[in-house]
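Blinded run. Sample ID left blank on purpose so nobody reads anything into the name before looking at the predicted structure. Input follows.
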Amino acid sequence: MSTGSLQIKSTFKYKNRVPGLSTRKSQLPEENRYSAPALEKGLDVLELLSAQPHGLGLQDIARRLDRSPNELFRMLDVMVRRGYIARQPDSSYVLTLRLFELAHLHPPVDRLLDCAMPYMQELARGTGHSNHLCVHHDARLVVLARAESPEPMSYSVRQGSHFAFHDDRVSARVITAFQDGARHEQFFRELLGTRHPAQSRVLELGRRLEEIRRRGYDEGPSDTIKGVSDICFPVFDHFGVVASLNVVYLQHRDVRVSIPAAREQLRKAALAISRSLGWLGAKHPDQPAEKKRRETREKRKEG
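Blinded prediction complete.
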């Protein structure tokens, strides 16, 4: 927590890596995996250093990765020469901004951020509350960007944080509610978080997602933080929903706008971002998609 600002922290621990974001937690079936020990060793080093604010020496890296210093020394030297890590005067190794630079060369992400950030910053100024942009990635919910409130006190979610893509997350519900076909079914299973959910839970979640889709957004008390309300709208491009935009509405004495007013500003911001990304809007329901969703609901009821 920093002065005048309350923040939700998500600390990445190497020994408890998140499934889907680790080189050792591949989503591929065993028969489809290929072995590349040297590459995995290098990725292990990068993941370890990403969680260290002050860097680590060779001996510490070797100990934490259960490797010998000799097998890591040449690899560290190559990564220093390639600019992925840097060697400090005290001989410790730290991560550089090289990975950050590469990530921002990815056109879809770069375009999404370019379109979204001006509207997100305007939204933060207009509502007095922070907001953030979330995307689905490998069964995780990733905070791609955030805009801080100008007010002295607010809640915000750290950029780069990632969470399980489960139904207790408003962004996960909204992103799933506006998917169609096989992608909707995939995300729906991820929301449930288990292979054998109770039928009552399946039906309840299905009804909740239908309601979100019908009204165009989701809103309610935070499932994780008391005193906070989550308001969330989908963001579309030409192909469909690509992200969710959330306002983290903190209830406090000096709040400047009401929840309905914040919701309306959020709606306009999400619409403006979507149009900037090439979304033209749907004047009429997509009949084939609606038919498919009805069939899916019937199957769940029979399930």
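Unblinding after everyone has recorded impressions. Strands lie at 6-8, 85-87, 93-95, 131-137, 140-147, 155-157, 162-164, 218-221, 228-237, 240-250.
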